[in-house]
Design brief:
The chain has 278 residues and is an alpha/beta fold. The protein has nine helices and five strands, in the order H-H-H-H-E-H-H-H-E-H-E-H-E-E. Helix 8 links the parallel strand 2 and strand 3. The longest helix is centred in the N-terminal third of the chain and has 44 residues.
């Protein structure tokens, strides 16, 4: 039988088209599968971000530790006494990990940008109020101890005072940058802390060794300073204002540092989920 050339090439074209269609279908299915796997993978990763198992895989039944921490930082949860035991590992990984550092750095970035944007009077009356514990200095070495457990164990004033007396609290690097920026702009730093007056010399040495060498005033809590932290810090800020100072910035780790009277032109909250001072 004789097959014409045109019929032969038509047959070849048809087979090639069929093969092309077949391989195109395979490629389409493969691509769709890859996209589906990517979507599923993304969903899995998003699900993993939900802190149902804490920051390192530890089971946290009936408690979302990230939401608990958010409630603290936004001051929606008040007057709490200790970190839930279920969140000890989560909090430890947060405080000793990069997220806490990044959070502090972001707060510091906003504070520095704000400070640099100010038009200062130049009369020496512009001041910036700094808290000390968990703001300029970190007590993480103390809170990381097993007998403290990042605040999950009941607060022990005797143990904490002994730690303060050692004078070994390191600086929080990002807040030290805020301090140095404030100084370079001609703004006077003022420290207001709930630390007892009898630890003044220890605090002076600790601050200077950590990099805080100069300040306009270091105000500690005296024997006659009674009442809440809000009342104490409000009264000290009010005294500054009455003396003619302008509080253009105020940074602290507790809401009691940032509320009350004469809080300043702008406040900045440093994260601290380890304890509450009202």
């Amino acid at each position: 039988m004789i097959i014409s050339t045109s019929s032969f090439f038509s047959s070849v074209k048809m087979r090639c088209f069929t093969l092309l269609l077949f391989f195109s279908s395979i490629v389409a299915v493969a691509l769709a599968s890859n996209v589906e796997e990517a979507v599923i993978s993304q969903v899995v990763e998003i699900h993993r971000l939900r802190p149902q198992t804490g920051s390192a895989g530890y089971t946290v039944p009936q408690l979302d530790c990230l939401s608990w921490r958010l409630a603290i930082e936004t001051n929606n949860l008040q007057n709490w006494r200790s970190v839930p035991k279920e969140c000890t590992n989560y909090l430890g990984h947060y405080m000793m990990g990069k997220q806490y550092r990044h959070d502090c750095e972001y707060v510091a970035k906003q504070a520095i940008e704000y400070a640099k944007s100010l038009k200062l009077s130049g009369d020496g009356k512009d001041v910036w109020v700094f808290d000390i514990d968990e703001t300029t200095l970190s007590n993480s070495p103390y809170y990381a101890r097993s007998d403290v457990a990042f605040g999950a164990k009941p607060y022990n004033a005797t143990k904490f005072d002994a730690w303060i007396a050692e004078g070994k609290a390191p600086a929080i690097p990002s807040i030290l940058k805020v301090y140095n920026t404030v100084l370079s702009l001609g703004i006077k730093p003022i420290f207001i802390t709930g630390t007892k007056q009898n630890f003044k010399q220890v605090r002076i040495v600790n601050l200077k060794e950590a990099g805080y060498a100069n300040w306009a005033a270091l105000i500690l809590k005296g024997a006659n300073d009674t009442g809440s932290a809000v009342k104490f810090k409000s009264s000290k800020r009010t005294a500054l204002v009455k003396a003619g100072y302008r509080i253009i910035g105020n940074i602290g780790d507790q809401w009691s540092d940032l509320i009350g009277e004469n809080v300043g032109a702008r406040t900045f909250k440093v994260p601290d989920p380890m304890y509450y001072i009202g």
